Amino acid sequence: MEHTTITVRTNPDALVKIYDETHDEILYLNNTDDNGETTPINLPNSGHYYLDITVFDTPIQK
């Protein structure tokens, strides 16, 4: 089975969830690293996917 590999880029420490609606399951759930990236994520080539990204506000330090 072939896969598609993606890397999500957003703010550092954002929560990334990838949900496969076709199979009713969460495929990935993790925070981004200090550079705002996920590790490479393999997705099957068939399916209907949703990405849910939650960016947390961090207080500005003075």
Summarize the structure.
The protein is mainly beta. Helices cover 0% and strands 44% of the residues. It has a three-stranded antiparallel β-sheet with strand order 3-2-5, with no helix packed on it. It has a two-stranded antiparallel ribbon with strand order 1-4.
Write up what this structure looks like.
There is one protein chain. 0% of the residues lie in helices and 44% in strands. By secondary structure, the chain is mainly β. The strands form two sheets. Strands 3-2-5 form a three-stranded antiparallel β-sheet, with no helix packed on it. A two-stranded antiparallel ribbon has the order 1-4. Strand 2 (15-20) and strand 3 (25-31) form a beta hairpin. It is elongated. The mean pLDDT is 91.
Sequence-ordered SSE layout with sheet pairings:
Elements: E1 3-6, E2 15-20, E3 25-31, E4 41-44, E5 49-54
Antiparallel strand pairs: 1-4, 2-3, 2-5
Provide tags for this entry.
single chain, mainly beta, two-stranded antiparallel ribbon, 0% helix, elongated
Shape: elongated
Distance between the termini: 52 Å
- By secondary-structure content and strand pairing, the structural class works out as mainly beta
Order of secondary-structure elements: EEEEE
Neighbour order of strands in the largest sheet: 3-2-5
- The low-pLDDT segments are none
Specify Rg, calculated over alpha carbons.
Answer: 13 Å
Beta-strand share of residues: 35-45%
The largest sheet is:
3 strands, antiparallel
